[in-house]
Amino acid sequence: MATLGAPKKHKVTIVGSGNWGTTMSKLVAENVKENPNLFDQTVRMWVYEEDVTIPKESRHYDPGSETANKPQKLSQLINTIHENVKYLPNITLPPNVVADPDVVSSVKDSTILVFVLPHQFIPRVCDQLKGHIVPYARAICCTKGVDVGESGIRLMSETIGMRLSIYCGALSGANIASEIAQEKYSETTVAYDPPPMDSRAPTPSGSPTSSQVDLISPSKPIPSARSARLKALPSEYPPLSHENVRKLFHRPYFHVRIVDDVAGVSLGGALKNIIALAAGFVDGLGWGDNAKAAVMRVGILEMVAFGKAFFEDSVKTSTFTEESCGVADVITSCMGGRNFRCAKKATATGKSIFDIEREDLNGQKLQGTSTAYEVHEFLKSQGIEQDYPLFTAVYNILEGNVKPEQIPDLIEPKFDGTGAKR
Ligand SMILES: NC(=O)C1=CN([C@@H]2O[C@H](COP(=O)(O)OP(=O)(O)OC[C@H]3O[C@@H](n4cnc5c(N)ncnc54)[C@H](O)[C@@H]3O)[C@@H](O)[C@H]2O)C=CC1
Ligand SMILES: O=C(CO)COP(=O)(O)O
Questions:
Q1: Which of 144, 272, 292, 316 is catalytic?
Q2: Fewest beta carbons within 10 Å, which of 10, 48, 361, 414?
Q3: Torsion of CA 206, 233, 134, 78, to 10 degrees
Q4: Pocket of ligand 2 (CB under 6 A)
Q5: How far is the centre of ligand 1, averaged over its atoms, from the C-alpha of 89 (Å)?
Q6: How far are the Cα atoms of 308, 312, 418 from residue 422, in angstroms, in the given order?
């Protein structure tokens, strides 16, 4: 592979700086250092700016300092102490992670954009980026969620790809960020399958001919995605082959498997968050591990059925069963994820999960709650809520229409008297 001779290197921006976003910056920054022939040595991380006071329990808290107990800009703090004290405390970031509060300047000249924002912020941030990114940039979406609108349901990778007219793959797996930040072993799945054009591109100044422009591969419910056009990656850059994409993410403690099923990888990450809420609801009742396993089983069936029903052109069942982004992520999320923990506490205390998110997560965001609403809106628009009883039960619990105690009855298959299952 002619990467050694490539005169240009890929600049990487991490778009997001929460718990997972900051962890991603750390591991990507470690990898660019180990691959100087492929990647620029600085990794920029876009920080949604806020004022942060260093907590008293932080190792960086110095009562004698003039900034003690005073709010400081999060981006400046990260660049000074190399730690995100709010979203990833006690983890030292490599010095080549540079925080930037300006989203437009953070992506300047970057050919690789790694999106790691809570999914509700993706459309707006993409709109801010429109016209400011390198037209032949490639993206990887690490966000877990779906985008539901009048035109149907989209993967977040499709939303990014369509809004920015670039190719967007996906990274998802059984990946509790704090464990990975501490360099404890885990696996992940990367779906990266752009049209085969990145190794036959013209120079950056040349405009691509029609043979050098391909379509973003669409999934079924989004006809508008078919009109999104890709610009070829200029030949001065190392090709973004699977091998080179793997070099960006794989660490001794973070093992990457690459597949081509962007829909399967994205849906696994999004839908498991609804299942994790259900697991938390039953665990909060003190019902134990068998109850949790029961909702996980039904949830996995609904996840696979959903993928097959609405993304049938692309999704593969094996992605859910064999890769980290499927059953494995359901398991880890139902043991220790934020959605699980907050749902469990909500049931155990009788408080609203939205209050618990605000009180306990210090600005971190649950994705399962909004995903449950979005998936319900989509199922309702199709008139098929009853085909997804667990997803529907979670929505109805969040809405206060039913109680967690009703889950067993709600997910029990119904028979119509003729022996047929409804
Ligand atoms: N934390 C984890 O263990 C994992 C998270 N993920 C996924 O990664 C995505 C990002 O999650 P985290 O990095 O954990 O974030 P987080 O939940 O820790 O933090 C929330 C982030 O949102 C930012 N934010 C708040 N308001 C904003 C706005 N108006 N516009 C833009 N950004 C705003 C905050 O500054 C903060 O960076 C989610 O989809 C999540 O499901 C995926 C795997 C693991
Ligand atoms: O996605 C995750 C683990 O793979 C993290 O899940 P939570 O957002 O529920 O913490």
A1: 272
A2: 414
A3: -150
A4: 144, 174-176, 273, 276, 329, 332-333, 337-339, 367
A5: 15
A6: 18, 22, 10
Active site residue 272: yes
Domains of the chain: 10-260 (3.40.50.720), 271-411 (1.10.1040.10)
| Closest atom of ligand 2 relative to the 175 alpha carbon | 4
Q: Which residues pair with 255 in a beta bridge?
A: 187
- 241-to-35, 245, 246 alpha-carbon distances in Å: 14, 6, 8
Instruction: Confirm if 117 and 140 have CB atoms less than 8 A apart.
Output: no
- What's the ipTM? 0.99
**pTM of the entire structure?**
0.93
How far apart, in whole angstroms, are the C-alpha atoms of residue 14 and residue 12? 7
Q: Which one of the ligands is nearest to 52 CA?
A: 1
Q: What is the rounded distance in angstroms from the CA atom of residue 238 to the CA atom of residue 30?
A: 19
Q: Which burial class, exposed, middle or buried, applies to 324 when counting CB atoms under 10 A from its CB (0-12, 13-18, 19+)?
A: buried
Report residue 164 as tokens: 């920015």
- pLDDT per residue as tens, the chain (422 positions): 445 567 999 999 999 999 999 999 999 999 999 999 999 999 999 999 999 999 999 999 999 999 999 999 999 999 999 999 999 999 999 999 999 999 999 999 999 999 999 999 999 999 999 999 999 999 999 999 999 998 899 999 999 999 999 999 999 999 999 999 999 999 999 999 987 765 444 433 333 322 223 333 334 444 333 345 789 999 999 999 999 999 999 999 999 999 999 999 999 999 999 999 999 999 999 999 999 999 999 999 999 999 999 998 779 999 999 999 999 999 999 999 999 999 999 999 999 999 999 999 999 999 999 999 999 999 999 999 999 999 999 999 999 999 999 999 999 988 777 766 65
Q: Identify any residues that bridge with 254 across adjacent strands, giving them in sequence order.
A: 186, 251
